[in-house]
Every structure is written in C-alpha cells, then in structure tokens.
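Hi support team,

I submitted a single chain yesterday and got back a structure, but I'm not sure I'm reading the token output correctly. Could someone confirm the output below corresponds to the sequence I sent? I've pasted both exactly as they appear in my results page.

Thanks,
R.
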Amino acid sequence: MIRTYKRKLILTKSQEERISSWIGACRVVYNMGLEIRKKHYEATNKTIHKYSLMKQLTDIKDIKWIRDVPNDSLQLSIERLDRAYKTFFKTFRTGGGFPKYAKKHSYKSISFRSVAINGEYAKLRKISVRMRKDAEMTGIPKTAVIVKEPTGYFICIQCEVTHKKFESENQAIGLDMGLSHFCIDSTGNFIPNPKHFKKYEKQLRIENRTLSRKKKGSKRWKKQAKRLALLHHKIGNVRRDFLHKESTKIAKANSIVYMEDLNINGMTRNKHLSKQILDCGWGTFRTMLEYKTQVIRINPKYTSQTCNECGEKDKKSRISQAEFVCTSCGHVSNADVNAAKNILRKGIALNRQRETLVCA
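Hi R., thanks for writing in. Yes, this is the structure output for that exact sequence:
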C-alpha cells in the first residue's frame, strides 16, 4: 500500500525561482504534447503514443530553461497528458471533457520518479530541498511531487508501507457512510458531519462577488483572487485535518475495516446531494484508512434493507431515514447502525471465504 506524506518546504529564493521555472517548462511540454496529438490525429486519424512524444523531448533540449529540468519530470508531464486522454475516453459517454491546454493558475506541480530522505532534506533529481519538521515517515520512499499552493511550496512523498495483519474478528468494524452523520460504525458510535463547506459558504459567496466586481487582470483583481484561493485552501486543510483525525482513531482501534464500495462519482450526479457528498470527502477518507489499516470494500446492495438479527430483506422495514423496524421479527434499531452491522457481517463472511480459497 502507498502512503502519501505532505510536508511544507523551506526554500531559498533561488530554489523557488528554479522550481517555478521547472513547473512552467513542464506546462509548456504538456501543451506542446497536446498540440502534437491533436494535429497528428487530424492528419492521420490515428492517435500518437506517449512514448513517441517522449522521444521528441530530445529535440527541444537545446533550449536552456528546458534543458535544466530533470528529464523524468518532463516525461511525467507527458504521462499526465496521457492520463487526461484515458480519462476522457473512459468518461466521454457521461459528459467527460476533452483535455484542455494547461494554464498557469491550474498547472502548479512537478513530479519526480525517485526521492531519497535524509533527515529534514529530500534529495531529488538536480535539487535537494529542506522540509519543515513533522512526524517521522514510515515505509520506503518511491516518488515525489512538489506543489505550489497559496501558502507556499509543499512536497508530497509517496512511501510503500505494509498493512497490519488481521488478528481477530474482535478487531474488525463495519462502517456506514452518511450525510446526516458523517460515519456510523457497527458498535453504535456516530461521527457527526462537520459540514465544512457550509460553514464557509457565506464568506465564499462574499469573496466571489467581490472578485466578480473587479476588472480581470488588474492588481485589485489579483489581490482578491489570492484572498479567495487562500479561503479555499483553508477549507481543504480543515477538511483533511478532520478526516486524518477520525481515520487515525479508527485505524488505531481496529486492524480491519469493512466499508461500502460506493460509486461516489455516480452519486455526485444527483444535483440535490452532490455538494453534500463532495463536502464529506468519503473517497479521501477511504484512501486514508487504506494506508493506515486493512480495508475491505463490501457491496452495499441491500445493506440498509436487511435485518441484522434475522437476515430478512424487505425495503418496507426501512420506515424512515433513521428508523428500522423489521417486518419479520420486529427488531427495532437505528437504520444506519443496522446497515453498519450488515456490512460487518458480510465483510467477515467474505474474509472467511477468501481464507478458505487460499487454503484450498
């Protein structure tokens, strides 16, 4: 499993200018690759492979500010374009957009294929950067990404870590995700939904309105745009802080977690619930749990309509959003707790089935 560590960088002015120049060069390579692919398809009605584009990088190495950029970073910008194409071909039936030219305000990162950690320093290709002190990293460092954010430059280091081994069923828990409550577990604990975006929605509306009243590109517009970006950055940090704290609590108490395998992209197509679902950050929460402990995804089908006492499935048992009364045995329970227990039961059965297949 891959775990990502994010650290703020302490850079000199020359290092900032160099990294900023590298990001700009990668953005240019990305746009050039997109232009070549579009023209090649118009001429031949065939697409061009990413490796063919990578071979053409040697033709622009005579440009000084491109020659200074690590070669693997330029290649990764081509791979980034290739992923954008694959995403388009995968989602165009559901409204996925065609790859666009990268703009300065949207392309703010540079990737590296390898990284070495030496105390407070991260050694990358052609540069060594100092990181702010934080918790010690565990695992083997694999790749790194330097990101420019409104509050400075950050480095995201991906490390390969090993899972904790599953010891007993008493260390397992089932989780049911929700909107009224962020999460409900099979023991009956409720984690309230903090609704981070809603808390700052009024302030965001004011800042957006102020930005719209200024001339685009002016000094005041740039100042207001930065203020708005900082507010969005703050909301993201508050949300990640909440998700990290809750996922760490669950991971420390349980060696295995059973969760619903939700189609979050499909659920966000509901225009009435998309904002609330995205504000919860279910996908990020699941990713955090997956590198902190062992997570097994369970098919969510009928988990909210099945009685965890007798196993009877009936949609009429779900009287309301919060109340569950079994039409067969009369068992009364909170609907979300009942669903979490069903997830746990299905997860344990699935895990035993896997163990039996391995033994066979």
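A quick pointer for reading it: Residues 219-253 form the longest helix (35 residues). Let us know if anything else looks off.

Best,
Support desk
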